[in-house]
Amino acid sequence: MARAQSDSETFDFVIIGGGSAGSVLAARLSEISGNRVLLLEAGGTNQSLLVRMPAGAGTLFKQKSSFNWGLSTVPQNNLDGRRLYWPRGRGLGGSSAINGLIYIRGHRRDYDQWRQLGLKGWAFEDVLPYFRRSENFEGGADAFHGDEGPLKVEWGKSPPARRALYEAFIQSGRAAGFPVSADFNGAEQAGMGQYQLTISDGERQSAARAFLEPIAGQRPNLAVRTGAHVSRILMEEGRACGVEFRLNKDTQTQTIMAAREIILCAGAVHSPAILQRSGIGDPADLRAAGIGIRHALPGVGRNLQDHLDVALVAQTHSRATAWSTNRGWRKPLIGIDYLLRKRGPGRENFLEAGAFLDSRPGLDRPDLQVHFVAGIVIDHMRSQINKDGFTLHICQLRPESRGAVRVPNADPLADPLIDPDYLATAEDRRALREAVRIGRRIFAENPMAGLITGELLPGAGIDTDAGIDAWIRRAAETIYHPVGTCKMGAPGDEMAVVDDELRLCGIAGLRVVDASVMPLLVSGNTNAPTLMIAEKAADLILGRPPLPRAELSHGAAGDEMRPANSPRAVPWDSGFASL
Ligand SMILES: Cc1cc2nc3c(=O)[nH]c(=O)nc-3n(C[C@H](O)[C@H](O)[C@H](O)COP(=O)(O)OP(=O)(O)OC[C@H]3O[C@@H](n4cnc5c(N)ncnc54)[C@H](O)[C@@H]3O)c2cc1C
Questions:
Q1: What does 521-579 look like in DSSP terms, one character per residue?
Q2: Could you read off the pLDDT of 180-199 as tens digits, one per residue?
Q3: Catalytic residue check, 371
Q4: Angle CA(518)–CA(523)–CA(525) in degrees, nearest 5?
């Protein structure tokens, strides 16, 4: 990769933001040697042991740093007026450089629903080939997985003692009456199961690691500029033509021109903020921020959706948890062992099992996701409970609540005002209340019950609806999946920000490609879906025909079938002896 030579130089494509989507696009658009591509990223290169080592995630997401924008919401009406902490990745790889490393695509019906909104080319059969293209799955290729893509995906590789805890969680869910899914990204999402991870050979596979590092130094037509904070997009006669940015600590603004397209990939918080600072947005929002209106587009920053999460914590007598594994003198040794020999707990994310469950009968797909942590992780690791324990993080997958992102003023360095308006509907409050009850049902079954010595959170005294609701208001937090703030919409949708080819409505030469374009939040973690969106966008931008649609035979996508007791097919041995 070359550095940008001079700021008067023109590129064909200027990509704003080198996160999950931006990394994919930089790699795909520069595959054609005639395309001159510039990637502008506000943060650094993220070449750090903490990023590479999976267990470094907790340190990265718990506080604002060069890796993490460390944002906060505005006070939340339905969460006792609390401001929720919102980590967002900064630097190459973006949020995929600080995330929890779970590889999940969502449910097939999520994408079919996008298609039902009138978005051509976004049904599950259309997007599955793009998931497959990006993936290099250790389990090999099949109808759902790819094994030739840049992103390495593996099953968890924790030692037997910890695997036994994940196994115990799955078996307890089964005993509580839930099915088992052999592959959350395969034929049937619903049930208890093991997560696939963006870890390979003990190293984090951020989007930068997977898509940019392999081509570093090999493409003279790709320039990557880190420490470049974009303030706004320049327009002439209804066309986006250039980008204004500042280099680190520089007060002087520089501009760079794009001959073909500018592609905004700054994520669900910063993409709408950059549009608003460029004068593109809801006129009332722009006026309130003192920004002149260049192009009225009311959907910019609206339609914010996120996964709100409760964390149930139980104490255990097991010593295979994160606390006993990492505490005291062990902690520095783990870093050293990893650094020198790439061995030990540094290779793990302590989160290898989970579930997709229904909070009530009659749903067409699960509306709750469980992340089972073999340790106590609450308040984004900012509060510590120094005990052996387990955490069930359970979030509602398709909330009804909708919020907004707005810039407070024209200052490019001012943090956007984030208002997810969590728990604004009775259904959202019901689903999260039910999540607490379901989590307790799983903890109450063996083998988990035999491992647990007591419930720490919410705490045994909290069991009425009102008590649980009050605890949720005190304790619920984001599980980091904001989307929707530059939503893709069909013709006639007044709140659409981009069309189904991700072109900004009403401005030529500008696309948005990142998590912000999702019209509806998917039923799972959002990194893989964002990578898929960028893979598909690359073909749209390059004018390539779409990949052939996947052909799934009836039932192969499985969501009609909800086997009550499907066979267990997790690919590791049970380690109950070591409990
Ligand atoms: C703590 C955490 C844990 C998560 N865990 C998981 C998980 O386990 N699995 C999963 O699938 N998903 C997870 N996610 C979500 C997932 O990582 C994101 O949805 C995904 O990375 C979003 O990709 P994106 O391209 O939209 O934005 P990002 O990856 O956030 O990229 C945006 C990029 O734009 C840059 N940028 C912003 N403003 C500017 C500017 N003005 N100028 C230049 N550059 C700018 C940012 O620095 C960043 O690099 C997690 C997220 C977080 C924060």
A1: --SS-SHHHHHHHHHHHHHHHHTPPPPPPP---TTTS-TT---TTPPP--SS---GGG-
A2: 999 999 999 999 999 999 99
A3: no
A4: 80
Burial 78-97 (b: 16+ CB within 10 A, else e): bbeebebbbbbbbbbbbbbb
Q: Which residues pair with 151 in a beta bridge?
A: 135
Q: What is the mean pLDDT of residues 61-86?
A: 98
Atom of ligand 1 nearest to the CA of 229: 42
157-194+308-396+424-475 under CATH 3.30.410.40, yes or no: yes
Ligand 1 pocket mutation, candidates 45, 46, 96, criterion most atoms within 8 A of CB: 96
3-state DSSP assignment of residue 215 = helix
The two structure tokens encoding residue 470: 């009050």
The distance in angstroms from the start CA to the end CA of the chain is 49
Give the pLDDT mean for 30-54. 97
Which residues have CB under 6 Å of ligand 1?
16-22, 40-43, 61, 87-91, 94-96, 98-102, 104, 229-230, 265-268, 270, 274, 480-481, 514-515, 525-528, 530
Boundaries of every domain in the chain? 1-152+197-305+482-544, 157-194+308-396+424-475
Which is the closest atom of ligand 1 to the Cα of 86? 53
Name which of 374, 392, 386, 500 is nearest 441 in CA terms.
392
Pairing of strands 368-373, 353-357: antiparallel
What string of DSSP letters covers 233-247? Answer: EEEETTEEEEEEEEE
pLDDT of residue 19 exceeding 70: yes
Asked if 537 contacts 544 with a C-beta cutoff of 8 angstroms, the reply is: no
- Which residues, in sequence order, are bridge partners of residue 34? none
Q: Of residues 107, 229, 380, 481, which has the active-site annotation?
A: 481
Q: CA angle 138-142-148, nearest 5°? A: 55
Q: According to CATH, what is the number of the domain 1-152+197-305+482-544?
A: 3.50.50.60
